[in-house]
Design goal:
Blueprint lengths: L1 H4 L3 H4 L27 E5 L2 E4 L28 H28 L10 H13 L21 H31 L6 H15 L1
Antiparallel strand pairs: 1-2
Helix pairs in contact: 5-6
């Protein structure tokens, strides 16, 4: 008796208690916590941290059906709707009858009747139920690890590498010119050396 009095009558009658989510959400939040998140972003210096998701602007508001589903343009059961549907059915029947008459006149077999909506739905469900075979993943595949560098840091490293490579090629082309002519390149000769370096860098 004491146990029964400790519960409300609504709870004992089987009423469900829905717990709202944090931040004014209609339902409890289902997103993973920070330690559970696998997606990370670079924060610089070769370090990464879990991505923080921004809350949606429409939290707490129920989406209306008319914003998601196409609503009827005319009133249900109106004469216009019934008339347009009757005309559509009549036109389909007339077209089928003309096709049968033409086939009979030409001596050919009449075309097969249009499949019913239920048959089409069954066929579609069978096709959708058959899942494609998944291709096996190569055992040698290794996912690329995040570098931890930001885009600016990666571009800086890339540019520094290109500059170093360009200087090496410039020294090589200069040495080639010196061996061939016995003097350092100047003027037009220097321009030709730089053009050759640019060509090698492009390749």
């Amino acid at each position: 008796m004491i146990a029964e009095e400790s519960y409300d009558s609504e709870f004992r009658s089987g009423a469900q208690i829905r717990q709202t989510g944090a931040g004014g959400r209609i339902r409890p939040e289902r997103k993973k916590s920070t330690p559970e998140r696998r997606r990370v972003k670079a924060v610089g210096g070769g370090k990464t941290e879990p991505v923080e998701y921004k809350p949606r602007k429409d939290i707490g508001s129920q989406r209306k059906t008319e914003t998601r589903v196409q609503q009827p343009e005319k009133e249900r059961g109106s004469k216009e709707v019934a008339q347009s549907y009757a005309e559509k059915v009549k036109a389909e029947r007339k077209k089928a009858a003309q096709a049968r008459a033409a086939a009979k006149k030409g001596g050919a077999a009449p075309a097969a009747e249009k499949p019913k909506a239920k048959e089409v739905a069954k066929t579609a469900s069978k096709l959708l139920s058959k899942k494609k075979e998944e291709k096996p993943v190569s055992p040698d595949y290794k996912p690329q690890k995040a570098s931890g560098y930001t885009r600016q840091e990666r571009m800086k490293i890339h540019r520094a590498g290109e500059t170093k490579l360009r200087n090496i090629m410039k020294d090589q082309e200069t040495e080639k010119y010196k061996k061939a002519t016995g003097q350092a390149p100047t003027g037009k000769a220097k321009t030709k050396v730089l053009a050759m370096v640019a060509k090698r860098m492009a390749n």
